[in-house]
Amino acid sequence: MKLGHKLSNATFFLLPAIILIAAFYILPLIVTTWISFTPLRDWKISQLTEFVELENYRALYKFVTTHPLGSLVLKTTIVFVVFTLIVNVLGGLLLAIATYVIEERVSLGFRLLWLIPRMTPLAVFGLIWYYFFYGSPQGTLNAFLLKLGLIDQPTFWGTDPNLLPWSAWSIIIFVNGLVGVSYGMIIFYSAFKSLPPELLIAAKVDGASTWQIVRHILIPMARWHLVFVTVWQLLSLVTSYTHLFVLVDWRIVDEWYGTTWALFVFTEAFGTVKNQGLAAAAAVILVIIGSLLGLLTLRIMRFDKITLEPKGDI
Q: Do 139 and 131 touch, CB atoms closer than 8 A?
């Protein structure tokens, strides 16, 4: 009786979340999977009742294995996700530590400064980097380097063939890292502030240095948050395309060295040549890969060990 009562209470409180997940994740995933087996193009709804079996998946496999741009999309995706994840997680952790150990008044202004990229509208943020990397003497970066005498002529930083691929990859990692690093900073900083002050006071009384406090107290106590931020940022980056779309569409970076798998899905579905069937197949693969990466990350970071109940009586 008590078990049934507990289950009913749990179901009641979880029901809103279950409804939201079903409406905004499971249902769209079912529809996307359905479309991936149809020849849907140019949003001709009548084609939703036609089926081409695995044709879209075969076309996607052929694109990845035989087309040079297909392998380039995969490389760009891997480089973008791996390096931006490192920037977002480690950068957020370092910023949180820095803002935690300095005076609160200075810390507040510092945190607000790093939140500006996240709060800036996408079009404005993209416009800033458009003029920053613009390939003329009026471009911010070119004007600065020309003034210092470090370059002799303006450079198209994200599209110059002599600088590719790492110039374009560096730009997309840098721009997205500025947005994503603030998320980790907020989560880690809140974790540090929740620690009992007595714990840190005792450590300082015992002669612990700032580095020792960071290494042996702050980081171990934030391991829950470290797992959460890593998995969240990983799944976010795998499916991220908005800032990349602006960078590519405004010719800030080379089209194919700035196109990840998620952006490929978007451009196939809503670009000039619309192929929703192929885009849906690519989206289904993206969901599968994202889910596997999330589970693998939880396994590597020993999430099962963290969630074990403590031994002994409390």
A: yes
Please enumerate in sequence order all residues whose Cβ is within 8 A of that of 306, keeping only pairs 6 or more positions apart, or say none: 223, 224, 227
- 281/182 same-domain check: no
Residue where the block lists tokens 């930083």: 157
Peptide bond into 220 cis (omega under 30): no
Taking the complete model, does pTM exceed 0.85, yes or no? yes
Structure tokens at 232: 């969240």
* DSSP annotation of 49: G
229 and 174 fall within a common domain:
yes
Question: What are the CA-CA distances from residue 271 to residues 29, 42, 232, 252, 276 (Å)?
Answer: 21, 10, 28, 18, 10
**Residue closest to 255 by CA, chosen among 176, 135, 168, 170:** 168
pLDDT tens by residue, the chain, 314 residues: 455 555 567 777 788 888 988 898 899 999 999 999 999 999 888 888 899 989 999 999 999 988 888 889 999 999 999 999 999 999 999 999 988 888 878 888 888 888 888 888 888 998 999 999 998 888 999 999 999 988 889 999 999 988 889 999 999 999 999 999 999 999 999 888 888 888 888 888 888 888 888 888 888 888 888 988 999 999 999 999 999 999 999 989 998 899 999 999 999 999 888 899 999 999 999 999 999 998 888 888 877 777 666 665 54
Query: Distance (Å, rounded) from C-alpha 154 to C-alpha 173?
Result: 22
Q: What domain count does the chain have? A: 2
In a domain, 95, yes or no: yes
